[in-house]
Design brief:
alpha+beta; about 40% strand; eight-stranded antiparallel beta barrel; globular; about 230 residues; Alpha-Beta Plaits
């Protein structure tokens, strides 16, 4: 399978660029929906201070799934859409990834197809988790988030993380990069807070839809926080 997934983060610093970026959440999807070689996309805002219901007006994300790498390369090299984003943003960072495995749904679809790749467990791994939170579960969910996310602050092997989402409070996702599979599993299975969150997910049934996907990042373009090498 030649499918490639890209996620691009945009940072906006001036007031007018932030206003422009916010408006693009409404008007750009109709243009993004017409790209050749693209099979799925989500244009999203981000959470303040990592994973937080309060929006971070400085950072937006564009997740895209492509039929192959050539289609992705063509978009980033020639698209007027990308030129618009770059001209307004102070920083742009894109990660290319191949899917290792995926479970669940995103707005009714399964966008990530497992690739024919052999992933070395000692190499970096990226993770996307997302969920649609039931309206009647919003308050208990967001009350519990600070506790479940607390271990991330001191988690060894976490290279990058950002909370993202298409609809504030309701449709939320996270993107994280870990130095290897063991670092990810240490957080997922050895963190008491995260284990409790998993149990609550099953018993409280916060979500009407959820997805977990693990990827092998293999190429990046641009910079983030002044660094061209993030991992």
């Amino acid at each position: 399978m030649k499918q490639v997934t890209t996620i691009t983060f945009f940072r906006y610093t001036s007031l007018w660029s932030k206003i422009w970026a916010f408006h693009m959440m409404l008007f750009m999807p109709s243009k993004l929906n017409k790209l050749n070689g693209q099979t799925f996309f989500k244009l999203m805002g981000s959470g303040h201070n990592g994973f937080d219901p309060l929006p971070d007006w400085n950072v937006y994300a564009l997740l895209q799934v492509w039929e192959n790498e050539a289609a992705a390369d063509h978009f980033f090299a020639t698209s007027t859409i990308m030129s618009q984003f770059r001209n307004k943003a102070s920083e742009v960072w894109t990660v290319y990834m191949k899917n290792i495995n995926s479970k669940g749904f995103w707005t009714g679809s399964q966008p990530f197809v497992k690739g024919n790749i052999t992933h070395d467990d000692s190499h970096i791994v990226a993770v996307i988790t997302r969920a649609t939170i039931k309206i009647n579960k919003l308050l208990p969910f967001w009350r519990y988030v600070p506790r479940s996310r607390a271990p991330l602050g001191n988690q060894k092997g976490l290279l990058f993380t950002k909370g993202i989402g298409a609809k504030p409070f309701v449709q939320m996702a996270t993107f994280s990069v870990w130095k290897d599979k063991q670092a990810l599993f240490d957080y997922a299975y050895k963190s008491a807070e995260h284990q409790e969150a998993i149990k609550k997910t099953k018993t409280v049934k916060w979500y009407s839809e959820e997805l977990f996907a693990r990827f092998q990042p293999y190429k990046t373009i641009g910079s983030w926080e002044g660094r061209t090498t993030i991992f």
